[in-house]
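Try it yourself: sequence plus phosphoenolpyruvate, in.
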Amino acid sequence: MHKLLVEGGRPLRGQVRVSGAKNSAVALLPAAILAETPVTIEGLPDISDVGILSDLLEEIGGSVRKDGRTVHIDPSEMVDMPLPNGKVKKLRASYYFMGAMLGRFNKAVIGLPGGCHLGPRPIDQHIKGFEALGAKVTNEQGAIYLRARELKGARIYLDVVSVGATINIMLAAVRAKGKTVIENAAKEPEIIDVATLLTSMGAKIKGAGTDVIRIEGVDTLKGCLHTIIPDRIEAGTYTIMAAAQGEEMIIDNVIPQHLESLLAKLREMGVTIEENDEQLYVKPGKDLRSVDIKTLVYPGFPTDLQQPFTSLLTQTQGTGVVTDTIYQARFKHVDELRRMNASIKVEGGSAIVTGPAKLQGAKVKATDLRAGAALVIAGLMADGVTEITGVDHIERGYENITNKLIDLGAKVWYEEMSDEEIEQFQNS
Ligand SMILES: CC(=O)N[C@H]1[C@@H](OP(=O)(O)OP(=O)(O)OC[C@H]2O[C@@H](n3ccc(=O)[nH]c3=O)[C@H](O)[C@@H]2O)O[C@H](CO)[C@@H](O)[C@@H]1O
Ligand SMILES: C=C(OP(=O)(O)O)C(=O)O
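Structure, out:
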């Protein structure tokens, strides 16, 4: 087991290239189950979530061949193998095996998913959708059993706007008989990306990216070639780093429109940002002003950038209120930032951040993926060395973060943890 060390105080400059989107990748891979001939996906990020999903595709009989960041998946020999335990529990997105296997085989057995602990993360809307399409769904000892004689299109109104439920219902519905309408659907760019792949496979989908998605079921889907979109959350994380500790930075391979809510807030704080076709040029001003943020569904401020943004607010002038309306308990990073001398109070679903605080390097724990990113940003701004444990969370979502940071001028490195440190980490 290793820890990540960050020596603070060095300015970041230069260019960083954003990888393919984690939250697309984790849906595109299971979507390949629905095809009958090989699917090729280009630009997948090299992160652990992608590795685990590729292994799961092989467990059900698929052949997965990696060629750099391109992955070729041959789904022709896949079978309806139950996956009640094991790797499905290591990540959130294994729930997409439910929709995809149900769509292909009319049955699936999938263990309840893992992923970041951000408070309750129910999947009732996914299940409501599968049931509406004609599946019988039961929870038996922590695994979801789904069975259908035949899936039939239905009108499904989501009670909560959910990325996962929208994509999962799309996956199950593309091969169902007749028409499905998903109302109050989520509008995140990753949903459009998955719909684009499915459409290239022969699916008939209209309205992805709006809150009403219409799907006309087809009998078969074929393989295709798809290029993934860039990761707006990774791009946003580096943009926040540039505001926090950058001199001048270029974030490359970005769709700027995907980040408008973040860019608007950064400009309000005094950061200069220029948008080009696929790049952002970021130059922080002196004495940035604090702002309030409230996370919302897309195109609102993304909850996945709330934690990194909180680290930036520790350095701005005044008080900023961070309210997470998606995950009211997504504040585990706050205790760790306090160890580094940040001045933050959590009240209800909000963190109140008073800046500027002089951050100091400390031993901290990444409790989840974006908490890890928040600690890296804090470490870059702090005096001295910050030691971050729980690095496997960070590796779920950030490709090659150390090399990308080193190229920008940061001093970051991994060290093996001692037995004593591992024990302390496991007990904390
Ligand atoms: C793999 C992936 O894409 N993960 C993202 C996805 O997670 P995920 O798909 O799990 O998040 P959802 O969009 O489903 O969740 C949004 C809200 O709806 C609630 N809810 C969701 C489903 C459900 O059946 N019932 C229910 O009540 C959740 O508890 C949460 O409060 O979107 C989140 C919100 O943008 C992001 O933080 C995650 O990075
Ligand atoms: C919460 C996240 O991921 P997951 O849904 O995969 O746990 C995230 O990407 O910030």
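One thing you can check immediately is this: The longest helix spans residues 232-245.
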